Predict the 3D structure of the following.
Amino acid sequence: MPKYSFFCRLSLLGILLTMLGCAMKRAQTYDFPEPIDTSSRPIVLQEKKIYSFSELGVYADNRFAGARLNGMIALNDTLLQATVAPENTPINHSAFYAFRIWADSARALTVELDYVDQFHRYWPKLSHDGFYWRPMDSSRFEMAADSSWARLQLTVGPDTLYVSGQELLTSDDVWTWCSLQAIHPAVQLTSAGKSAEGRELPRLEINEGDPIGKDLVVVLSRQHPPEVTGYLAMQAFVHELLADNELSNAFRKRYRVLVYPILNPDGVDLGHWRHNTGGVDLNRDWAYYRQPEIRQVANDIVHFRRKGRNRVVLGLDFHSTWHDMFYTPDETAPSVIDGFKEKWLAGIEASLKDYAIREEPGPVKQPTSSGWFITQFDAEGITFEIGDDTPRTLVRRKGQVGAIEMMKALMGVER
């Protein structure tokens, strides 16, 4: 064999091995039974401005992270109409709003929320500092029979009042929370990449000891910007994983956990109803990864799994909807931890007094994160939904109990 032929073949083999190695570091595409086109679509940005009604001595604005206010006009001396529109359409009915309002002197005022062919979903929350929130008194709230508008009776004055569909927890707030968790010796905070607008995609790695060969649990949150209750439950879930008790300490030694607390930071900070700046529902992009946020996070998970020789056993994605719900795989889905969901859900129900689990099992259909964990790793993929109006103490308790019962089920601990 001529030397040049030998070296050509050797070079070709090296190229093929390099290509194979690169492919193994990336998430694999998958043709889901119900495909969805997640190519980028145009969005409409809200104009950031102060709405000044000087004749009334009243002012409102949307010049802060997480705001959503597309217009405001005065209908009379005591009634303002606020227009709230989505980033693009078609879109899920998640009509989010957030604005600030103040006045030269104390006065009563009604603000009507007009949703432009959508309907009201989120009960108003009020705050004077953007940190401490309270739900609006029901006696000061009115809604149309068809939910096309809502009226809020406010008392405003020189002290700025925040009015929002949910508590404001921006990408900066999430990073601050991540930094606090990273004080724990078992936590490493890094970034999985950047969003389309350059915001960080934080990743928390939870592990004690050598991570090589451990089973891996993955936790996701904030694919959809207004779904704050899911994020709050995720926080409580993580806090319990880091607790100093026998169960949590043992779990961190046996399992590795990756937490991606905000997958759509652009949408969160821009006050979007559901989509990213590509105008796409990120939880439908887990087939071909056309959006940068999902592409980077999916590849990051695959990279960690391969580098650590870990087996991904469970993916939990925290969301919010009208009521508490668990979307789980049905009996047609493979799982490397058979019987997990039955033990886990039974444990949660037994631990929460007067609480009945709502579970909706189903086959893999659309390219969601839960379907991705199943098709990519044969892992259990579960969507952990929290109700929009679930009391916040119960939200946190559900997150805590969810973590406790997950650890028990995975560790084989009897109740």
About this structure: The chain has a mean pLDDT of 95. Residues 171-411 form a domain with the Aminopeptidase fold (CATH 3.40.630.10). The first strand starts at residue 50 and ends at 53.
